[in-house]
Amino acid sequence: MRIVTVTIIIGSMMLLSNAVNALERFAGIEDGSDENLKAICQDYMVNSYLKNDPELFFHLLPKSLSSREERLEKKWYEGHLKRFGSETLTKYDVFEIADGFTERMYKGHKIKKIKIEYQAGIMEKIKRSSCRFELFEDNRWYFSQKP
Fold this sequence. Notes:
The protein is of the alpha+beta class. The chain contains 4 helices and 5 strands; from the N terminus they run ααααβββββ. The radius of gyration is 18 Å and the shape is globular.
C-alpha cells in the first residue's frame, strides 16, 4: 500500500513538473544578448521548426498575435508538410547560422537579425532565411519574422 502511495505521489509530481516547464505562449524572452538570441534561433530551427513542434514558436510570438493563435497553429502544420514533407525529421542535411547579428530600428523598436541557411527533407535547394527578433515596450524580445 505504501509503495502505491509513493508511486502516485511521484507520478503526480512529474506531471506537475512537466506542466510548469511548458512554455507560456506569447511571452517572449528577456535576455536579448547576441549569444542568447543566436542560441534561441538555433534551438527553434532544430527542435521546433524541423521537428514540427510549435511550442517555442508560440512562446516567441508577440501578444498582438494571440487573437490569431488558432489560424497560426493550423498554418504551422500545413507549412511544415509543404516545406519538409511527411517524413519525421531529426536533423538538417545543411544548417549554417551566421556569426553575428545585424541591428536596426523599426517604428522605434530595436530589431536584431541573424542569417541562416538550411536544407532538409524534400527540399531540393538550400533555403536562405533569418531569425529576426524585436524588442517591445515590455523589454522582452519576440519574433518579428520567423524563418
